[in-house]
Amino acid sequence: MTGPQSSTLQAIKYSRAGLSLSAGSLQVLDQLRLPFETVYENVANCKDGHHVVRSMKVRGAPAIAIVAALSLAVELHFVLTSTPAVFPTALSVQDFVDHKLNYLRTSRPTAVNLFEAAARLEKVVVAAASAMNATSASTANAYISAAETMLEKDVEDNRSIGRHGAQAIIEAAAAAGADNTVQVLTHCNTGSLATAGWGTALGIIRELHVTGKLEHAYCTETRPYNQGSRLTAYELVHEQIPATLICDSMASALMNTRKIAAVIVGADRVAANGDTANKIGTYQLAIAARYHGVPFIVAAPSTSIDLNTATGADIVIEERAAVEVVRVSGRKVPASDEAAEATSAPATETVHVAAPGINVWNPAFDVTPSHLITCVVTEHGVALPSTSSGAGSQPSIDMKAFLAKFAQ
Ligand SMILES: CSC[C@H]1O[C@H](OP(=O)(O)O)[C@H](O)[C@@H]1O
């Protein structure tokens, strides 16, 4: 099995173990090197999986969960086939899986997808290990199959999010008397480099594009990791989607001078009341969108919705190292065009861009309150704010009631 085939870039390449003695293969695109270098890194076990997530070689809420789950799948298969004595019973496999998932949970704290997947996979393994005639192999393979399913389901969910989101934007634009095509703004990277393929917010932009409804997409650079200028711009150029890069500081001026039909962002964790943790800078985009009367849309699979977290106040916001703010990596610009032609591609280098000694605050995410969000688009459809209950109370989006309609 390999990752979903598509013309979009592929962050994750996975193949299931072939013959019983051959190991599975998991390779991830090192996103710290994009867009200048395309390097896939092998992930052979949970230690590798934890590293590529923690270091942000792999990032994006769904991709984090999928890579973590598959890193355990390849390790589990390798141990089962190379040293089967490690797993004398089905229960020993269950214990191994629990231990490894707890370790993977420590890689990054904010995106709920990793924690949702871990809890779901633990249940799969408990059921398999307690089944009649359960064996080490049957229990391990139950885990591996469930982890593999995440790859395919994520792409299906993203295609569905794309359709629901594009329809909502076009209908709202038509109701506002706008043209048949729209201009939108997105933040961070929510495309094929943040998921198993197609993407969430960027999946809506892809759907608008392939259905002829996209006039133009604007993307913010998304300091300090630059997911926008390095990753989203890369995806948009790769697929020749009409797009323009702006600095984060330009977003309000853009909304004030261009007909932006919607701001579309992803999510790392949507709380039960619709408050949403997403890449730093999302909150101020929501404030600017509200001021300019621009719909603010969160696009997220149901695996990003955390009904166990009541409000955004309860979401842990990851803080990352200062160097990610004060240093920038990029491709060295040749002294002259002749130099560029004469030499091979210049090396990537890192430069320090801030006054040495300055303090740095580097929260990787912020929380947008539900009352600033026009809707949350999931694979099931569009979750809208409920009318505010009680005088003076802010409207919110009841995600529990929304998901209950689709409970299996
Ligand atoms: C498809 S959701 C991706 C989500 O994850 C990003 O954060 P990071 O790059 O730090 O993993 C950002 O918040 C995106 O909206």
From TrEMBL:
Write down the InterPro entries for this protein, in alphabetical order. IF-2B-related, IF-M1Pi, IF_2B-like_C, Initiation_fac_2B_a/b/d, M1Pi_N, NagB/RpiA_transferase-like
Under Pfam families, the record lists: IF-2B (PF01008)
Top EC category:
isomerase
What pathway does the UniProt record associate with this protein? Amino-acid biosynthesis; L-methionine biosynthesis via salvage pathway; L-methionine from S-methyl-5-thio-alpha-D-ribose 1-phosphate: step 1/6
Q: Give me the Gene Ontology terms describing cellular component.
A: cytoplasm; nucleus
Purpose of the protein: Catalyzes the interconversion of methylthioribose-1-phosphate (MTR-1-P) into methylthioribulose-1-phosphate (MTRu-1-P).
- Protein name (record): Methylthioribose-1-phosphate isomerase
Origin organism of this chain? Geranomyces variabilis
